[in-house]
Design brief:
By secondary structure, the protein is of the alpha/beta class. Among the domains are: about 80 residues, Alpha-helical ferredoxin (Fumarate Reductase Iron-sulfur Protein, Chain B, domain 2, Orthogonal Bundle); about 110 residues, 3-Layer(aba) Sandwich (Rossmann fold), CATH 3.40.50. Helix content is about 50%, strand content about 10%. The strands form 2 sheets. The protein has a 5-stranded mixed beta sheet with strand order 1-3-2-4-5. A 4-stranded parallel beta sheet has the order 7-6-8-9. Helix 10 crosses helix 21, helix 13 runs parallel beside helix 16 and helix 19 packs across helix 20. The chain is globular. About 45% of the residues are buried.
Length: about 400
């Protein structure tokens, strides 16, 4: 697969890390050359090699412009498996990672427990500042104010004229940190006549493990979710996060073919004439998540959704072709580069004059909201479906 790269360099100006470092080793073609060297055993998979591989955001902007259709995402995830095997970690680091990634993300009951614990932490930290000295400071600072964890029903019946049945993919981070978006999605889908199924046994999509080079774990998540949806007769599986949607699209074709982003699905849905959308006289800037633009190719759909709100001015956030720096766990593992990319987004938000920032990925939303808050900029960061749902009468405290 790497051999398909002809080193033309068309990808360079589209690569966020190359634009920041101007280092060939931090460009897509440079990394591919390094990968080939390791795979052919011409160079070792040592720390110098790891630095350049780790700095990659896996935003896949390079794939959009590659004339030879090199599947860079598959390449980078594959080589990260090699890197992970040679990486030096302490016993405590390995145990902690396994407990978090395998003991929590795979188990809905554990996710609920962790969500409740984090919400309690936020409340206590707000009342006793000394608690912030503990190790959850960085993570806590990135989380939005958490809402109580709902007990998700297996089925949410359509209201009014029935138009179809869909499944809602909860994910792992979203079901803890983005309850409002998931609830808003159910609300809008029900109002438009769709019965929503929420299989209780579904878990993480596997995106985080794929980016860490752990294909065997990805397959485990895939099997878990396929089992969860077995026997659930739905025309579409709805995702509210671009990262999850991209991972689900790599599942077997009979499942992947039904995966739709919420904005994409609603763009083709009927029933809008009875939706009753209240006007909102605000400017809304739209941030386009990398994977929505570069892999799902439905970055225009959130604009269409938001334009259904009367009186709203919808504008793209400048520089949407560049990553915000969140990239899953990237903001934790590569804080300097993540902060540099985030700074560009903050400047774009300032220049936009918008009072609301809409984005379709929970990781981007958390990263952007934390950066804007730290910069002293008062602007709400919200999912497009949540903003639309509010104008249709949605109240998260009443509609859970």
């Amino acid at each position: 697969m790497a051999a398909r790269c002809v080193s033309c360099g068309l990808c360079l100006p589209h690569c966020p890390t190359y634009r920041k470092t101007l280092s060939e080793a931090d460009s897509p073609r440079g990394r591919i050359a390094l990968m080939q060297g390791v795979l052919e055993q011409r160079i070792p998979a040592n720390q110098r090699f790891q630095v350049h591989i780790d700095l990659c955001l896996a935003c896949r902007a390079c794939e959009n412009v590659c004339p030879n259709n090199v599947e860079y995402g598959r390449l980078i995830n594959g080589v990260r498996g090699i890197v992970e095997k040679s990486r030096q970690r302490s016993v405590l680091q390995r145990l902690g990672r396994r407990a978090l990634m395998d003991g929590v993300a795979t188990r809905p009951s554990m996710l609920r427990l962790v969500g409740g614990a984090l919400r309690t932490w936020q409340v206590m930290a707000g009342k006793a500042g000394w608690l912030m000295r503990f190790g959850l400071v960085r993570i806590s600072a990135r989380l939005p104010p958490l809402r109580p964890q709902p007990v998700w029903k297996a089925v949410y019946p359509a209201a009014g004229k029935a138009r179809g049945e869909v499944g809602l993919f909860l994910g792992c981070v979203a079901r803890v940190a983005d309850v409002e978006t998931l609830s808003a999605s159910i609300f809008v889908l029900n109002r438009l006549g769709y019965t929503v199924h929420v299989p209780p046994r579904q878990g993480c999509c596997g995106a985080m493990h794929a980016s860490l080079g752990e294909p065997e774990k990805v397959r485990m998540f895939e099997e878990q979710n396929l089992r969860a949806y077995t026997g659930v007769n739905v025309e579409a599986v709805i995702s509210t996060a671009a990262g999850c949607g991209t991972a689900l699209k790599s599942y077997p074709p009979d499942f992947a073919g039904r995966v739709r982003d919420i904005s994409e699905f609603l763009g083709e849905a009927g029933g809008w004439e009875e939706a009753g959308i209240a006007p909102l006289a605000e400017k809304v800037a739209v941030h386009e998540p990398c994977l929505m633009r570069n892999v799902l190719h439905c970055q225009d759909k959130p604009y269409d959704l938001l334009r259904r709100i009367p009186g709203t001015t919808v504008v793209p956030l400048a520089g949407s072709d560049q990553c915000c720096g969140a990239a899953g766990t990237y903001f934790l593992t590569q804080p300097d580069m993540a902060a540099s990319l985030l700074a560009d987004k903050i400047e774009a938000v300032k220049a936009s004059g918008a009072r609301i920032l809409a984005t379709s990925n929970i990781g981007c939303a958390m990263h952007l909201a934390a950066g804007l808050k730290a910069a002293g900029i008062e602007i709400e960061v919200v999912h497009p479906i949540t903003l639309l749902a509010r104008q249709m009468g949605f109240d998260n405290d009443k509609n859970r």
